Structures are given as C-alpha cells and as structure tokens.
Amino acid sequence: MSTTAPTGPAAPTGPASTGPASTARSRMGALARAETTLLLRGKGTLFAALVVPLVLPFSFKNAVDSMDLSGTGLDLGTVLLPTALGLSLLFAVYSTLVSTYVTRREELVLKRLRTGEVRDHEILIGSALPAVVTCLVQWVVVITGFTVVVHPGAPANPALAVLGALLGLVVAIGLAALTATLSRTAETAAVMAMPVILLTMIGSGVGVPLDVMPDTLAAIARVLPFTPTLSLLRGGWAGNLDGGDILLAVVTGLAWAAFAAYGVRRWFRWEPRR
Asked: What is the DSSP letter of 1?
C-alpha cells in the first residue's frame, strides 16, 4: 500500500496582504515614544532636563536687581523670564539631546535604525521630540509662574517671541547633533556640551542682557548661536527691539540653523567612533 506525504495548505495565489504603510509621522512617533521611555529611565538626564532649568533662574535675581536697566526698556520680569526660557532650551533640549544622540550611536541604535525605511532626518527629529515636548511644557510652567510672581506683563510682540522660540529649538537640535559628533563616548557628552552652555549663559543674554553690556562685547555676543533666540524672546516681551535689531537677530538665527543643518548632513556620525 502506498502512502503520500501530507501536504500543507496551498500557497495563496493573490497578492500578499500587508499592514498599513508607514508614514514619516508614524515612524517619528514610534521613535518619540521609545525615546520617552528611555528618557524617563535616565534619572540623571531627567533631573537635568526637568529641575535645573526651573531652579537656576532664581540664582540670577540678585544680579539683575543690581543692574542699571534705565533706558533699556527692561525690568526684572522681562530680564528673568527670557533667562528662564533660555535655560530650559539649553538643558531640556540641547544638553539632553547631546547625551541622547551619543548614547544611541554607541549602542548601535542609530545604525540599526538606518537599515530600515526610516530616514536620517526622521531619526534625529523623532529622537528629539520628547526633549522638545519637555521644553515646551517647562515654558508653559515658567511663563505661568512668572506671570503670577514677577508680573512681566503680556508680551508686547508675541509673534517675535514665538519666532525666537522656534529658531532656538531648531538651532538647539542641530547643535546637539553636531556636538554629539565631537563626543567619543556617552561619558564625554556632557563635557563636550559645556562650552556651548557656558558661552550662552555668559554671552548670549541669559545672565546679562546685551542692552547693559559694553558695545564691543555686545557686538561679539550677538553672533553666538543662542543670542538671536534670547534677543527675540526678550524683545518680544519688552518690545524694545527696533527693525534693525530684529532683522539682525533673525538673519543670525537662520544662519546658525543653516550651518547646523549642513554640518549634521556633512559630519554626523551614525556609528560608534573608534
């Protein structure tokens, strides 16, 4: 008696069924959700992103009280509020993303992501979204708190403040990726980010507004990466910028954004440095 081997189900003759096609939005959303989980697990990074920007501005109050702000159109509120917003940008976005990009690169996460359909800019933007959302939430908290405690008043030119905020976010993400390129390990990421943080805190109007700096020092400070953001934020609240100052700040900010975009495309490293 002959036997025949059992056969499996016949192969489908029609087109293979596929899931819904992914989009840039869905891919970046998935990256953002994963990065949010990792951010919440990193206690040190989370502390620097959440607590430092909310506490540090109070250390500038005595210095601002001793400044001669007559003739500048500024007061305590319009000096300290942009300072707090700038610190959130530095620590919640720039510093956090330098560490994020370096760590994911050294863990080969970036290399593996590039083997799929996700594009390079989607990887960088998707990974940055949790830090950006953190910064935006902090800005809401800071503005609300300062409105109640310091009374800076409503912004004289809200569109100018929004423009400064958007420029700052773009420059922060781009510079974070460039700084990550210079960092060999996750342990050195914070060290490599420190020069930008210190220069910004000293020269970009975080601690001392450009309006009270000596003219020569103010001229040099105006070309630093985050000076346009601080100038537009402060000018947006105080309304003390003329057309030339606004144009200079916008052009400088766009130039830094363009340089950061070019630098990331040209030099960003997707694999560990050896």
From this structure: -
